[in-house]
Amino acid sequence: MEKGSGVVETRSSLQMTGADDELEGNTSILRTVETFMRLLPIGLCVTALVIMLKNSEENEYGSVAYNDLGAFRYLVHANGICAGYSLLSAVIVALPRPSTMPKAWTFFLLDQVLTYLILAAGAVSAEVLYLAEKGDPSTTWSSACGSFGQFCHKVTASIAITFVAVVCYVVLSLISSYKLFSKYDAPLSNPTKA
Question: pLDDT digits over 120-140, tens only?
Fold first, then answer.
């Protein structure tokens, strides 16, 4: 009888070891994906930042540069902040340390803040670009992109790259949300309440 219980116990421990290996494998895959998703925005943000920093045009109508408009300055600063955060967070995530509750909350909150920061920068820059392209006849504001086409093309490229970075940050927000809220147990249902 003892021999049979030993076999059952061994099978049970083998099943648990297999489940632990599978969970550890999933954690390793998630860490790899998260590290890659944290590294990808670095290149995107730096590219968008450099395009905007080098963006200026001068012709017979005058000159224009990115720092003439507050929205474009905000875009440059937001891209710089996001690139720095992505680098720092990628290094922290790549280190094989156990995920603690404070670490999970920190990543969750910072990922949310940075997602909204870069989204706001892209949105306000896109609005200014739209006004530069179309103008506003009701306020007698004519289109500026007809005179400064090269400038507007570079702004468009920078904003498009920024919105790709926004997508990366949305995915990061989902990953950090999953990592945080998977640490909590599901709420218990109360069968006595009808």
Answer: 999 999 999 998 888 777 766
